[in-house]
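Hi Q.,

Before the meeting this afternoon, I wanted you to have the zinc ion prediction in hand. No need to reply - just skim if you have a minute. The sequence and ligand are here:
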Amino acid sequence: MLKRDWGSVYDDRPTPQREVPEGESVDGKERWLARIAKHYRALLELLGEDPDSAALEGTPDRVARFWDEFINYDPGRIGTTFDSVNHDQMVVVKGIPFFSLCEHHLLPIEGVVHVGYLAADNVIGLSKIPRIVQKHAHRLQLQERLANDIVHELAQHVPDALGIGVYIEATHACMRMRGIRSEGTMVTSVMKGNFQQLDVKTEFLTMAGVG
Ligand SMILES: [Zn+2]
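Predicted structure with the ligand bound:
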């Protein structure tokens, strides 16, 4: 199978190494959660709050479980590919909603992702594309890196694709809550292969409903 070179992008930060690897014992997971909760207790105290008050009782444990849910999210199976019936056919999955957390402020990023690619011999199951998006959204992120991560993972599964495009529209709580308090939506796009050609890019953005 022809394997195209998609270039290396945003490999500046390795995948996080967690202290509790997947499949770790329940005991190990509980200890990990307890350690996170302990840090949140200390944080609440530093913020002048009383973590033992009725209002905040249980908050450190709940926040610890949130992190478990966020970081250890299971996107399900991603790797199924099929032979393509029609060559040169553009596949677009649009409006995939996601939540992530920005790595600069640990505040929410909320938005939608549109993903398209031009299949050669292989296509990936349509339900797998939202899973790829969720997999990479469930870690501390930058919007630009998220777009690149999605392109890269998709390219692993359809390495002979003629082109891949990812377009993300998102709002960042760190922009809306602090600093300039801007209401703007941030738009990021990554176009690889023949998606860099104007006609192909335009077809993708039109199909995604943003062109
Ligand atoms: Zn931020």
